[in-house]
Amino acid sequence: MAVANLYSTVNLNLSHSFPNNSTKFIHKPISSLFAQPTRTTCIRKSQTGGRRRRRRSVLKASILDESEIERLSVKDYLERSVDLIRSDGGPPRWFSPLECNSGGGGGVRPEDSPLLLYLPGVDGVGLGLIMHHQRLGKMFDLWCLHIPVKDRTPFEELVQLVERTIKSENSCSPYRPIYLVGESLGGCLALAVAARNSDIDLMVILANPATSFNKSPMQPILPLLEVIPEQLHAGLPYLLGFVTGDPLKMAMATVEKGLPLQQAVGELSGSVVALLSSLSVLADILPRESLLWKLQMLRSASSFANSRLHAVKAEVLVLTSGKDQLLPSQEEAERLFHMLPACQIRNFAESGHTLFMEDGFDLVTVIKGAGFYRRTKKLDYVSDFMHPNQSELTKMYNSYRWVDVAANPVMLSTLENGKIIKGLGGIPSDGPVVFVGYHMLLGLELGPLVSRFLTEKNILLRGIAHPMMFGKIWERSLPDSSSFDVYRIMGGVPVSANNFYRLLSKKSHVLLYPGGVREALHRKGEAYKLFWPAQSEFVRMAANFGAKIVPFGVVGEDDLFDVVFDYDDYMKFPWSKAWVEDLNNGRVRKLRSEAKGEVTEEDLHFPGILPKIPGRFYFLFGKPIETEGRYEELRDKEKAHELYLHVKSEVERQIEYLKEKRENDPYRTLLSRLVYQASHGFTSEIPTFEF
Q1: Contact 143, 116 (CB under 8 A)
Q2: What's the burial of 621, exposed, middle or buried (CB within 10 Å: 0-12/13-18/19+)?
Q3: Which GO BP terms, alphabetically (predicted)?
């Protein structure tokens, strides 16, 4: 397939860094390689005779369905590189993949999408994100930097080229961030540009950046590359292809998930053969002279970027591979984390150097999970939210699947006439709806709750969560910095009146736990006790939008774990007390500073628990409480408080109902359920008590 059918040149009025041309804006025609532009940037007033303008298409928001996205792989990268590396004598330039401009995969991007500039690694082709083009195209206006094979532009001039681009774009959209995604060498380029432009709102993503090039395990053999015979160089790209990544994981990218084993093995074998036969293109991408030039550039780029790290003020997300054979990427990520003022890390322990090319890695999911996507100066968890796709939903379910298997949740709901039924048939389909309930120990109910609403009702619950789950300062205190990513991906928002208001205004189904952390981290003997504050503000807010309020109870935690070491125990020992205080000091915002009593005891800690032979979870959603038409009535604080107490009593009543009824469930124990499934099939629905 010709490149003209795949990519469009960005019609960008900026100059390459040639002598005596530092201020002249020019456009280098490359129509022989690329299709006509699909995006027009702002044009200088002297050229148009009018004020700066920008032309954009009107685009709709993306939804869950991405079934039309084409599965691409390293083989596609190599095949499409053939056309791009044909010499046209031109300088480095930007191109925009056509699949991004069309929205890719059955969706289109929002009108106010930020610009994302991809800065390639040593290859310079600019196709390093090929496996992510279509998904990125729903969220970003994507431009990729292409550096021709025979181009010898020095690193500092590449910095100036990118710098002119971001300045031009920032002048058109000063309130919108610009993303720089740099891979290896491109990571040095991104950091250098960020250091020189601290006044521009940049979001920097680094994938195994080459700032650690001087510590590369390859350093001892690099001098040999300069004297290696020409006839041996032809085999070097093959070696680099295997060193930079895992060929098996790269080949897996084209194998459809969920296939029968025999068919999957057949497809994988075909992918490996196709990949190996395409590797010869690497010799054309990195001929001897170009490789030596790029290695020299790596040294200067690493030195240039490292000397300016102190000036980087941008938000930075470092993606690091545990099996990078070219660079000590994990060690480098830690160094950057301590040197940069706003830095996050996401580690991929089983990946190689070419992270973007491996199966199982999704850049869009990582960006969303890290809370790194925004369209304006400040991250807005409501407006900037992008719905999860099926792959993200599957990963979420798999992370909680053990709860589903072990506890086999029973979901009950209540119809308008008060009748209790099995399933979620009594849940209102149209929002806004506020679900108010009891928070189990460690929030164990969340996984089954969210997944069941999606599968049965196609409803995405937007949870109001503790700010700690969104605070970047907390991430490095956790064993896995991505522990809370799933909450961001699934639409959780930090607790605040503003976020609650805006979710209701969008007719969302909102999940609210008035007991919060105090319930989820309760002490010994406090199971099923509500720790709700006296304030009734959520009732008045719901009435403002005529939202339905659905109280719900859930039981079963006492059939899964026993709390053996709680907050009170922590406070008894100086070492553990100091640890809890250090954990919370300056990192956790107190949400109930004006309240009194035990509801204010919300210090974060990790309770010691002992597992039990699993019992069963039970959910009961009460009859929806209408607030439509009651706005004036519920403006009265006393009336609102009466309804608040009614909701609380309903939750308590549902908990007592479930605790009583589960005693009559013949399948409450794990063994009884296994016996039932052994005789009826492991996919069969297991009965419960009569109601």
Answers
A1: yes
A2: buried
A3: triglyceride biosynthetic process
| pLDDT number for residue 41 | 36
**Residue 412 in contact with residue 618, Cβ under 8 Å?**
yes
Query: Two tokens at 3?
Result: 């490149």
Tokens 């390859």 belong to residue: 218
The pLDDT-based confidence of 604 (bands split at 50, 70, 90) is: confident
Dist. CA 123–CA 131, nearest whole Å = 16
| Across 100-109, 449-458, 628-637, 679-688, least confident range | 100-109
Using 50, 70 and 90 to split pLDDT, how confident is the model at 579? Answer: confident
CA distance linking residue 129 with residue 477, whole number of Å? 31
pTM of the model: 0.83
| Cβ-based neighbour number of residue 154 at 10 Å | 14
Q: Is the pLDDT of residue 17 over 80?
A: no
How is 542-586 classified by DSSP, letter by letter? HHHTT-EEEEEEEE-GGGTEEEEE-HHHHTTSHHHHHHHHHHHTT
Sheet with 420-422, strands from edge to edge, namely 420-422, 410-414, 618-621, 548-555, 433-437, 509-512, 461-465, 493-494
Question: Cβ atoms within 10 A of the Cβ of 523, count?
Answer: 16
DSSP state of 56: -
Neighbours of 175 (CB within 10 A): 11
pLDDT at residue number 674: 93
The C-alpha atoms of residue 540 and residue 345 are separated, in whole angstroms, by: 40
Retrieve residue 660's tokens: 């009583």
Quickly tell me which residue has 């290896």 as its tokens.
184
Type of residue at 581 = E
